[in-house]
Amino acid sequence: MKYFRNITAAFGLMVSGFMFSQVKPLDAMLSDYKYPYEVHFLNFKSQDEDLKMAYMDVQPQKPNGKTIMLLHGKNFNGAYWEKTAKDLSAKGFRVVIPDQIGFGKSSKPHAYQFSFSQLAENTKAVLDELKIDKAIILGHSMGGMVAARFTLLYPEKVQKLILENPIGLEDYKTFASYQTIDKAYQSELKNTAETYKNYQLKSYYDNKWKEEYQPWLDLVAGWTLHKDYPQVAWDAALTTDMIYNQPVCYELKNIKVPTLLIIGTRDRTAIGKDRAPKELQSKMGQYQVLGKKTQQEIAGSELVELDNVGHLPHIEVYPKFFEALYHFIQ
Hints:
It is built from 12 helices and 10 strands. It is α/β, with parallel strands linked by helices. The protein is globular and about 45 Å long.
């Protein structure tokens, strides 16, 4: 396997008719990967650990007085918000983009008790550090679960809430059997550039690959080629456990701030689907149903459905995504 990974890194890999770009090994903190905007770090102590939380703070040339915070998904980091941040900044918004603890350029602690409440608290600490009293909160995928928990805990800090194909709109425990963290860790260790690309092709892009998707594959694939990968894989296992065991779907009805749901209806993302009985697998991650159900639960919320779009609207169909977003927040 080590030989295979070295060959992959050096020459690229042909899979299902697609050629991987040259994937470079990346350490746990992405030290050699340049983010699109200047990276700052919030140093703080949490759960008896000294941690660093990375964030970008994009300042507009002509401020409109509003701040928007962009929260990334589980298989991503703040870098994939580059175009969104650029266009929001051009419209006058201050854009704050954190990497959650365990992700991107932030610390990868080993003995950390991951919870959405803890991630929400860490997120609030970034806003407090920047002396931002209130912000628009946008969360994608797992970031949607963080955004929902943040809004439930600190509604006074949230001007508006946007959920872009959030996971956690259903309780995965009611479908799939439990997987121990140790087993999840062993599964994470098996990831390669090939497995990540196959997953993204199937789950995100309906088996249609475009060159602009490559950077978001290279980031996660690069980790698998570095000696730090066990550290990254461990935190990935912990956060998978968090998602499975800490549903937010039962409390979405308690959200009172103005809310927009941007839903790609082709998405079928669901945690633990491979562990669910076959007769239940097809019922998981039905976003064309979950979007409507959630819009009914959050009083006064708006729903924009993007037909035949997968898990990543702001990558797959950016113009449609941004149109929906800007219409809601301008």
